[in-house]
Amino acid sequence: MNFPSNIFNSHPKEDGDFFGGMTRILGFKPKKLDIYKKAFLHRSANVKDAKGNPMNYERLEFLGDAMLGTIISRYLYNEVPEGDEGYLTKMRSKIVSREHLNELGKDLNLIDFVESRIPRSHFGDNIHGNVFEALVGAIYLDRGYKYCEKFINSRVIIPYVDIEQLEGKVISYKSLVIEWCQKQKKTFNYHVYEDTGKDVLKHFAVKLTIGNNVVAKARATSKKKAEERASKRAYFALQNKIDKSE
Amino acid sequence: MNFPSNIFNSHPKEDGDFFGGMTRILGFKPKKLDIYKKAFLHRSANVKDAKGNPMNYERLEFLGDAMLGTIISRYLYNEVPEGDEGYLTKMRSKIVSREHLNELGKDLNLIDFVESRIPRSHFGDNIHGNVFEALVGAIYLDRGYKYCEKFINSRVIIPYVDIEQLEGKVISYKSLVIEWCQKQKKTFNYHVYEDTGKDVLKHFAVKLTIGNNVVAKARATSKKKAEERASKRAYFALQNKIDKSE
């Protein structure tokens, strides 16, 4: 096989780009860069290690999947003391669903780092989630459990996990807010604008005005998410009023 | 409900017994004893926490199951660099199989600590494995990832995991040794005796003699395991002779 020299050999400029990219995504400096490179190596690149073993992200994906399950389990255990084993299992599988992991990988634009011999347009949707899991596996090997936990907390739990929405109790906070405004005969406005700032990801900000008051602001990686987040804040701020009005 | 006072209230003597028992099984001193008590609390005991949430080992079992999967994944990742994702998944499920976990729990006599309102004889086999998983969950909460890893290494991986046997390449080393002896017209003898020593678990020792030579010794928690372990050692010691004789 041909060992693609641009992947593992020392090319200071490209290594620097990769290092910078990883540091932005991870939120810390990777130590063993080779492990992260492996996390983006598609099997089609047909790379083998010194002993002839195929080298690609699939083994790291196996590791990352397990680690992700553990950290999410711990989070749910603490967060929902009243949930029994069946509930915890169901919630965990919603959080680590293929669909959800693909969304996470897409938001981080992980596909930009993938090395393959197949054009990117030929990949299915699952590559986003698979590479995300492989990245978690790489963090585990490079920096251990604690860094994995921090990464999953900042990249998965804080931005994406909403227990009430996962439980299906609340489908959309935006619709609850709109319903409340209509009932109260109040005007409302979602003002959305791009606000990426120094962030590695494109971000949107939302300012939600009800009547003449700005009742909530939020920021997220998509317009829809930012609106939903602002609505959730507004919803809890208005909770008292809603309760009284019923 | 009645809160069984002998479980959670302060009974110095009983707490001391439980603490001693846990310390022997864990190989380290537990910090938050209450978490471990929960790991042995069967749902039939019908205990509830201060907020009225049911309290039993099932939530800890959920956590321990995830942690066990992660540590075994990491072990396999390192141990079998040539195994692909499918292989790793298959091997992991063999190691954490219900049957295997029940065996682990039984060997540690975990059922002796279970608090329930059902007589022990009424439990099925799975309680052994379930409580073992809950114990792993308790370690995770009490002492964190590192202690979990150490515990699983010393109580699962070192004494029980044999990659070649799991792969089905070798069903029984004892049968290989016997076959070799018969082919070579040599006498053999497995001398088995109890040798618990200072160990928390009952142990057996085996001395394997072929012809006039003691070729291997081993110690394990059952006669069968000790024989198998001695046979494996003998098999590798005899490997050269076997190769030459073929």
Automatic annotation (TrEMBL), chains A, B:
Protein residues bound to Mg(2+): 61, 130, 133
Recorded coiled-coil stretches: none
Transmembrane segments: none
Function description: Digests double-stranded RNA. Involved in the processing of primary rRNA transcript to yield the immediate precursors to the large and small rRNAs (23S and 16S). Processes some mRNAs, and tRNAs when they are encoded in the rRNA operon. Processes pre-crRNA and tracrRNA of type II CRISPR loci if present in the organism.
Top EC category: hydrolase
Catalyses which reaction(s): Endonucleolytic cleavage to 5'-phosphomonoester
Source organism: Sediminicola luteus
Entry annotation: catalytic residues: 65, 133
Reported cofactor(s): Mg(2+)
Domain named RNase III: residues: 19-144
Protein name stated in the entry: Ribonuclease 3
Sorted UniProt keywords: Cytoplasm, Endonuclease, Hydrolase, Magnesium, Metal-binding, mRNA processing, Nuclease, RNA-binding, rRNA processing, rRNA-binding, tRNA processing
